[in-house]
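The records we work with from here on pair a chain with its fold. Taken together, the tokens spell out the fold as the letters spell out the chain. To see the layout at work, look at the sequence and tokens printed below.
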Amino acid sequence: MKKKHLRGSSTAGRGSGKRTRKAGNRGGRGRAGGGKRGQQKQASIMANRHTYSFSSERKIPLNLSRVGSLIKSLEKQGKAEKDNDKYVLNLKELGYSKACGRFGGEKFKLAVYGKASKKALDEIKSAGGDVYE
């Protein structure tokens, strides 16, 4: 009968215990194996580090195509106010970081307090709304 799991066995199913069990058989531990001869391998491993910028701010975009379906429920909850003919949205209070996307042919105007992408800015302004950053 063949054993499938060989944890704790000294040979790991290969007969001799010398061949497979230690770190030398897989090239070392961690970032080992890149040293000597000018560290060429380490340089290629480290080349793409630090290319991303991380921030503690959680980025959640508000897609303008969804605003039409959300606006009535936001107004009922008191998170969106109607000022004359415009709905006023404060993105930070709603939990969004910026407005993006395109309007889905909506018949209302928006006054958005927060950031907006270029496309969203054009869409809001062409619909007669305003963006206040």
